Amino acid sequence: MQLTWHSYRYLPYERELASREVLALLNISMKSETDGPVLLSECAATEPAKRLTYFSGFLHGLDYVETVQHQLETAARSGKNRQATRYSVHGLHEYKGKFNPQVVRALLNIFGVRAGASVLDPFCGSGTTLVECAHLGARGYGFDINPFAVYVANAKLQALACPSAELWSILARLTKRLNQTKKWDIKIPDSARERYLASWFTPPLLQQIEVLREKIQDTAGSLAPIFLTIASNLLRDYSLQDPNDLRIRRRESPLPETALKTVFLSACDNAIQKLEAAQAVLGVRSTVGLAKNCDINNASRRDFGREFDAAITSPPYAMALPYIDTQRLSLVWLELLPPDQIGQLEADLIGSREVRGTGRKALHQELMTNASDIPAEELEFCLQLQRALGESDGFRREAVPTLLYRYFAAMQASFRTVLGTLKRGGRYGLIVGHNHTVLGGVKRDINTPAHLVSIAQRVGWKVDEAVPLQTYQRYGYHASNAVRAETLILLSKHSS
Asked: C-alpha angle 129/134/138, rounded to 5°?
């Protein structure tokens, strides 16, 4: 059997994962450095080989067979030599901090996940793990404290389980109704929701997004979340918020000239085309999982309802991203959260940079007494940061040691929870970013993966490996905020 790489450039870790997939699926060793076609020393079964992520196809006897991944990516690729990451329903809504779906699929293969298996994502975000599980016929179950993330994740799963023909039919009816709407106005009630939206949209655009929402709900019925998710993805561009800023700040650039209705209908067309292409390869996925709006550390056994074969996640990075700021408009527009609860949700997120009210004093006391009993090495690191604070450090930097302590404590609790839900021998993969802070005028690296490895061992996980993952160079507006290094942490639950 001869394997063929995709036509795009690979990062070193992708070739390494490719070789691990070959070993896991085909039980054959290969060299990951190989640039040309990979000639395997033995003949392998066709069906397992079709599951490979990092190969476009393989020569089996005289027949050339494309991998499922190649078929999915080909239908969505923006360029022949670029890796496609928004295939199937992955591009339904942009989501900051989302991780690479190819890595998830590779890990599912390496972990030996099969159709019918159950996989946990304790920090599911917009559902990358859950979607890749559905592609393989496994059930992915996700938890996230952010109701918007859960909404998007479930909309993606709902789309995978719905024949594309039904969505085309809804889109046709919706297009007709929108085109017949001569007067885009609606009575705007005087409520906290409407006042908040009015502060971020011009009066004409506020009318338009409210009419659009009403038409979607009336036309799409139970499938409205799919179309509302597509519409939500456009809100920032048409708001008075700077669409390029991670924080919620006023824009200086002009609003788009193309009508919202036109862009929305085009986005729906594009999304359904990608879904249709995926369903042509995979069929309609009757086996899909579920995302729940719940903090993993507060989940009960009833919330889980099962033991899991594996777990895969990209947990929140410590103080790295203002997740809620990028989603405030959608949270309010979709009525997922009242405006006055946004700040509290931001503060409740694991890894948040926010502390509300008297919480800072309480957090400092927890740090000084090690109330959560985190490992000595992680405690000492937090105390070192506390001692490093200088007179020039402002309000946010003064909070860094206590916020990092809170992050370690929350991750320790999550490691315990996930360990208790996995079957014996089950494996857990986490993509974790490195970050840094500046205290006392000195840049200080935070090796988050190393700290999480230490915490996982303390809780009872077997640490199999920590694999460095190279990231692509980021340019432009967010270059200074980009995570420049990540690590794949591989854990397993002791089988005895």
From this structure: 95
